[in-house]
Amino acid sequence: MSSFKSFETERLTLIPTSEDDAAFLLELFNTPKWLKYIGDRNIRTVDDACIYVREKIRPQLERLGFASYTIVQKTDGQKIGMCGLYDRAGLEGIDIGFAFLPEFERKGFAYEASVQLKNAAFNEFGVDELLAITTKDNYSSQKLLEKLGLKVAGTVKIPNDDEELLLYRICSSK
Questions:
Q1: What Rg do the C-alpha atoms of the chain give, in angstroms?
Q2: Is the pLDDT of residue 1 over 50?
Q3: Per-residue pLDDT averaged across 83-111, rounded?
Q4: pTM, 2 dp
Q5: How far apart, in Å, are the Cα atoms of 127 and each of 7, 15, 146?
Q6: Burial level of 88, CB count in 10 A (0-12/13-18/19+)?
Q7: Which of 47, 68, 117, 145 could make an SS bond with 150 (beta carbons 3.0 to 4.6 A apart)?
Q8: Residue 143 and residue 161: Cα distance in Å, rounded?
Q9: How many CA atoms lie within 13 A of 33 on its CB side?
Q10: What backbone torsions phi and psi does residue 12 show, to the nearest 5 degrees?
Q11: What's the topology of domain 7-126?
């Protein structure tokens, strides 16, 4: 993984998600908020998580140079969440997304990591516009997206999901 860029903030290190994160992903992907707001990825074992990384995360990382990042606290090295830039089916552009273990929510970590990736998208990866999607009842996510400068641009449905989602957008200031 060393050929792909990692990032640092004041409190966090953002490392490209790899199979080394499988046990953490198993825990995160099965939290109540992940299941409610992001959806069941059918990750039931560490092996399932490894397959998910190999089939879903790694190919985008190799193709675009960015994907999902595991968020690690600098103080103790604990994995606390994910934040990423995703080439998501059904969206015409790059989607920024985030999720944290419940005990690390509402501490500013999602904002800290997302600002870093938003800036990297525009300044290092050549992305001109970022999108984000969220359910209409995920007010915490909506608030964070607005704090990041994204604005509601309408609604969208993504493949294999009947739920109408809010679509947010921000353009590079270049």
A1: 15
A2: no
A3: 94
A4: 0.93
A5: 17, 19, 19
A6: middle
A7: 145
A8: 23
A9: 16
A10: -130, 155
A11: Aminopeptidase (3.40.630)
